[in-house]
Design a protein that fits this description.
This protein is an alpha+beta fold and 339 residues long. The protein folds into 2 domains: 132 residues, no CATH class; 195 residues. It is built from 10 helices and 10 strands. The chain is globular, with a radius of gyration of 23 Å.
């Protein structure tokens, strides 16, 4: 067997401490000096079995660029298994003891079949058969990853919440008051969510299919800027009655952010449309779950000073500050609060 394993430099530095001189940057010399340590650390956290334990070794180390920064690429992984047929069992535990949000993305060619998988702490060990994966299983896998991505995509969540916070309020004579009926808030939320969904589904599909490509730094910076503007609009309302237009406009940018996840995971060509649909549906399910929790609570508290001053105004100010830091980090390649 042979393969390639890409590990983010920031993750290796987090686990092993590559920055020997403490200057905040990892040099080529520092990386080369730790090649043996990196290989030993990584190989101790992956195991393959096919008729018994498969032996693996790292033949070379190079550095490559991915959508979210520099990666240490362990090229030409090679090894052999006791059996040349049957199921392949893969166990992956890299960084799970340090970061529960870490995910391992696998693209596997097994006896002429192409398969993809995502490893997580609760799915650290998976088994692969030398046969075509069912379309339903492929759809289900990407659906789950879509749900997971929206739940850990804090910038996407903060943007959505910034648009939903005023949904249970009405701005009149320079003041905010609670809406009279739940239906008013629900209609507003449906407009916002539908617009956001439609917009990011369009650009996610176009980007995932390779029809449009934008630089990752531009996309991530624009996403942070969208959160800044959405939160600022709550503090000083400029767009009051057509927030769905804001959701649609910035949703187009957020779609490119979703697409970067699929770019790393890889869409299987034989089930391209189905996998893309699964990821899109998963994102929407995750999004609707957030709305289902948020809206009833916000409506119940809408007339209280706690909601208007603490949740709405205070939450918008806090969101604005966090998003400003994100924007500075992404636009100017700084490290302020991110690891």
């Amino acid at each position: 067997m042979s393969g390639q394993w890409d590990i983010a430099l920031r993750d290796i530095d987090f686990a092993l401490g590559l920055d020997a001189d403490g200057h905040g940057e990892i040099t080529g010399g520092e990386l080369r000096a730790r090649h043996a340590d990196i290989a030993g650390w990584a190989l101790a956290r992956v195991a393959l079995q096919r008729g018994g334990e498969c032996g693996l070794e790292v033949a070379d180390h190079l550095v490559d660029d991915h959508t979210d920064g520099a990666y240490a690429v362990l090229l030409r992984l090679s090894g052999a298994c006791p059996a040349g047929g049957g199921d392949l069992q893969v166990e992956y535990r890299l960084l799970f003891d340090l970061d529960a949000l870490h995910r391992g993305l696998l693209r596997l060619g097994l006896d002429g079949t192409s398969q993809t998988a995502v490893f997580a702490p609760q799915r650290a060990q998976q088994q692969f058969a030398a046969a075509e994966v069912s379309r339903l299983a492929q759809f289900g896998q990407y659906l789950v990853e879509g749900i997971w991505h929206i739940w850990i995509g804090f910038d996407h969540i903060l943007f959505l919440l910034s648009l939903l916070l005023p949904a249970v309020l009405v701005h009149e004579a320079g003041r905010w008051r609670g809406v009279g009926r739940f239906r008013e808030a629900l209609v507003e939320v449906l407009w916002v969510v539908t617009a956001f969904t439609l917009a990011h589904s369009i650009t996610l599909s176009l980007a995932a299919l390779g029809l449009i490509e934008l630089p990752s730094r531009l996309v991530e910076s624009a996403i942070a800027a969208s959160v800044v503007l959405a939160a600022a609009n709550n503090i000083k309302p400029l767009v009051e009655h057509r927030r769905w237009m804001v959701a649609f406009g910035f949703g187009l940018i957020h779609g490119f952010g979703f697409a970067s996840v699929l770019a790393e995971l890889g869409l299987p060509q034989e089930t391209l449309v189905l996998s893309l649909l699964g990821f899109n549906v998963g994102v929407e399910i995750g999004q609707l779950a957030i709305v289902a929790v948020f809206l009833p609570c916000a409506y119940f508290l809408r007339q209280t000073l706690f909601y208007r001053r603490g949740v709405f105004l205070g939450g918008s100010v806090l969101t604005l500050l966090i998003a400003l830091i994100w924007f500075m980090e992404r636009a100017f390649d700084l490290k302020l609060i991110s690891s």
